[in-house]
Design brief:
Elements: E1 6-9, E2 17-18, H1 21-30, H2 33-38, E3 44-47, E4 54-55, H3 57-71, H4 74-80, E5 81-84, H5 87-103
Parallel strand pairs: 1-3, 2-4, 3-5
Helix pairs in contact: 1-3, 3-4, 3-5
Length: 104
């Protein structure tokens, strides 16, 4: 099994609520997602705090919308990004992926 090359640890952002497209874009910049993708540093582990409460689709789209659309499919996106999060956050990630694919 291939070890994840890159880790995006959202616990470093502080808080338990991830909301707003501008905040998602700031997180994308903070974690240098563009560089990760340009340099093909996959797979990427994305870690949410165990006590995370909310991930809005707007935050997700700000951070990962472009990545989902570039991947082209849900399966391809999941082959690039592995999410370590509680059930609530994982369900919200699913919704965000759906919205990103619809918008493409």
């Amino acid at each position: 099994m291939k070890e994840d090359k890159t880790v995006l640890d959202l616990t470093k952002l502080g808080g338990r609520v991830y909301v707003g497209r501008p905040n998602g874009r700031m997180a994308r910049d903070y974690f240098k997602v563009e560089n990760i993708e340009k340099e093909n540093q996959f797979p990427v582990s994305v870690i949410f705090p165990d006590d995370a409460r909310t991930l809005t689709s707007s935050f997700f789209l700000g951070m990962f919308g472009k990545s989902v659309r570039t991947a082209g499919t849900r399966d391809e996106f999941y082959s690039r990004y592995k999410f370590n999060a509680n059930k609530q956050i994982l369900e919200e990630i699913e919704l965000g992926i759906t919205e990103a694919l619809i918008a493409s």
